[in-house]
From TrEMBL:
This is Hexapeptide transferase. The keyword Repeat applies. One of its GO terms (molecular function) is transferase activity. InterPro entries: AcTrfase_PglD-like (IPR020019), Hexapep_transf_CS (IPR018357), PglD_N (IPR041561), Trans_hexapeptide_repeat (IPR050179), Trimer_LpxA-like_sf (IPR011004). Keywords: Repeat, Transferase. The keyword Transferase applies. Pfam families: PglD_N (PF17836). Residues 3-77 form the PglD N-terminal domain. SUPFAM superfamilies: Trimeric LpxA-like enzymes.
């Protein structure tokens, strides 16, 4: 069994650990920069200490943090870490799908042919991503999100739980789509869009 470290000791880490275990990985522990988490455990796996523990380790690691910008910043901080992807055996991922380093795909997700997932992407529980989609680096599609064919989610886009995107739509960089929203027109970068149909309600800085 290959050994792997988990980075992040929050709720998302529980699902990452469950996914890794189901996929046959040997989880050797958790790292988190918050001192209050040290000595605790996540699903029975000990939090050994801060992220500097990644320096010099020969083990692979998974970034188990749901926030897209935080994943981006940690990946930049540790360029020499070998980030591994994790796919739950109860996810359905077509053999033509490309999966980048550090990307996690949780139970019940379905990913259809010729979709491309970048690095550090999260396809959360039960999300469906249909044919020919592109999810760039640091994208997170929350549980139950449904993407039609040919959807493009640019770097850092976050789609809230249960959101829906119609065919061929583009959501530009670092934009957030609110829970339950239905995206029927492409969305610009760095904004928050909500509702049915989704409309921009706020511009953001990052
Ligand atoms: C396993 C996991 O847990 S994965 C994590 C999944 N997490 C999610 O899906 C979270 C999704 N987050 C949301 O939908 C949030 O509501 C956000 C990000 C869109 C907005 O959050 P905030 O900026 O805090 O917005 P806030 O709660 O202040 O609401 C602002 C306005 O937007 C409206 N609004 C917020 N979210 C939505 C939504 N999803 N759909 C429609 N309207 C919404 C509010 O009703 C409010 O309207 P008002 O000004 O007329 O009263």
């Amino acid at each position: 069994m290959s050994k792997v470290l988990v980075v992040g000791a929050g709720g998302h880490a529980k699902v990452v650990i469950a996914t890794l275990r189901a996929a046959g990985w040997d989880v050797i522990g958790v790292l988190d920069d918050r001192p209050e988490s040290w000595g605790n455990s996540v699903l029975g796996y000990p939090v050994h200490g801060g992220l500097d523990g990644l320096k010099g380790t020969r083990h692979r690691a998974v970034l188990a943090i749901g926030n897209n910008a935080v994943r981006r910043d940690i990946a930049a901080r540790f360029p020499n870490t070998e980030w591994t992807s994790a796919i739950h055996p109860a996810a359905t991922v077509h053999e033509s799908v490309q999966v980048g380093p550090g990307t996690v795909i949780f139970a019940g997700a379905v990913i259809q042919p010729d979709t491309v997932l970048g690095s550090q992407v999260i396809v959360n529980t039960g999300a469906t991503v249909d044919h020919d989609c592109v999810l760039e680096d640091y994208v997170h599609v929350a549980p139950g999100t449904q993407l039609a064919g040919g959807v493009q989610l640019e770097e850092g886009a976050f789609l809230g739980i249960g959101s829906v995107v119609t065919p061929g739509i583009r959501v530009e960089k670092w934009t957030t789509v609110g829970a339950g929203s239905v995206v029927i027109r492409s969305l610009p970068a760095h904004c928050v869009a909500v509702g049915v149909p989704a409309r921009v309600r706020e511009e953001t800085k990052s």
